[in-house]
Amino acid sequence: MDHNRDIFDGMVLFCAVVDQTSFSAAAKLLGHTPSHVSKEIQRLEARLGARLLNRTTRRISLTEAGQIYYDNARRMVEDAGAVQDRLHSLGDRPFGELRMSVPVIFAQSCLHHWLPEFLERYPEVSLQIDISERRADLVGEAIDLAVRIGSLPESDLIARELFRTPGVMIAAPSYLERHGTPRFPEDLVGHALIDFSFHQTSTHWELHLPDGGTTRIPVTPRVRCNAAETEKVLALMGVGITRLPELACRAELENGQLVRLLEDYQRPASGVHVIYPSKENLPSKTRAMIDFLVEKSAGWRGK
To answer: Where is the domain boundary, 90, 109, 139?
Structure first.
């Protein structure tokens, strides 16, 4: 029979009885009645299949099996108490390993610059960061939080918006000098396009019209990939036209390495969210990182 589910039942009571050398003294110490303590010890002996205590009207003593059980149980009870004291001493101070998943462009544009400050501020927190475009399973992979850009699928996860980043269509001046600058959506036909493709292949680019409508332009991209950084590098090298969150290429736009195209036809800004499994009993390390990301994102919300 599997007794693992109740393997610790009665352990604290038993150790208290031995330490106090009395059922009544142990009961008083732990806030129980002597009869409750006696019944719990009997249940413990029944589960173990061994007599742990010799009882007389005046005193109790350990059996050989009881001595073996007490020596080991005492260490476990003391270790559990030490862990509890450690947690109480920490209070709300963040500690432990924080596991997070973030997209490459967020890591390169924001997180890389912010992390040293977080690590200095919270010396008892260590980080394990998955930097990739994949959509990690937070619950299944025991990930504390993730950052996601764009629309979020329906789920039970909690999402908090950090800031919004516009979508931009871009190309290098060298490409435009060779192939011309598109002025209208239909001008994209015939251009070398670089498309983001992860789980599905797009056959059209949807552009938003100035009057609020949309138009779909058929595309046959020269390159499809699932990494925004690769899209940007190819655009910088003059390979073609691509679409990215402005977050990924703001510096290159500001210094003229890339040029905005069809600005009147861009998609609405995308949200950058931090997501996590639950608000209940949120570990202090997770709360610290969420609050830190919100704080540091303030500079991006105004851009």
So the answer is: 90
Query: How far from 235 is each of 74, 133, 193, 196, 230, CA to CA, in Å?
Result: 66, 19, 9, 13, 8
- What number of residues does the chain have? 303
Question: Which of 32, 66, 90 finishes a domain?
Answer: 90
Provide the residue range defining the domain that includes 76: 4-90
Q: What is the pLDDT of residues 127-150, one digit of tens each?
A: 999 998 888 888 888 899 999 988
CA 17 – CA 60 distance, rounded (Å): 9
Type and span of the H or E element at 164: strand 158-165
DSSP string, 24-37: HHHHHHHT--HHHH
| C-beta separation of 109 from 165 below 8 A | no
CATH number of residue 160's parent domain: 3.40.190.10
Task: Count the neighbouring beta carbons within 10 Å of the beta carbon of residue 252.
Answer: 17
Q: Could you give the CA distance from residue 126 to residue 145 in angstroms, rounded to a whole number?
A: 14
284-301 and 112-121 helices, crossing angle to 10°: 140
Q: Is the pLDDT of residue 259 over 50?
A: yes
Count up the domains in the chain and report the number: 3
Q: How many CB atoms lie within 10 A of CB 205?
A: 20
Backbone angles phi, psi at 190, to 5 degrees: 95, -10
Cα–Cα distance between 198 and 227 in angstroms, integer?
Answer: 8
**Whether residue 63 sits in one domain with residue 103:** no
Q: Whole-angstrom Cα distance, residue 208 to residue 263?
A: 10
CA distances from 117 to 113, 114, 144, 163, 247 (A): 8, 6, 20, 20, 21
Longest dimension (CA), the chain: 103
Q: Which of 215, 106, 108, 223 is nearest to 165 (CA)?
A: 106
> How confident is the model at residue 100, as a pLDDT?
96
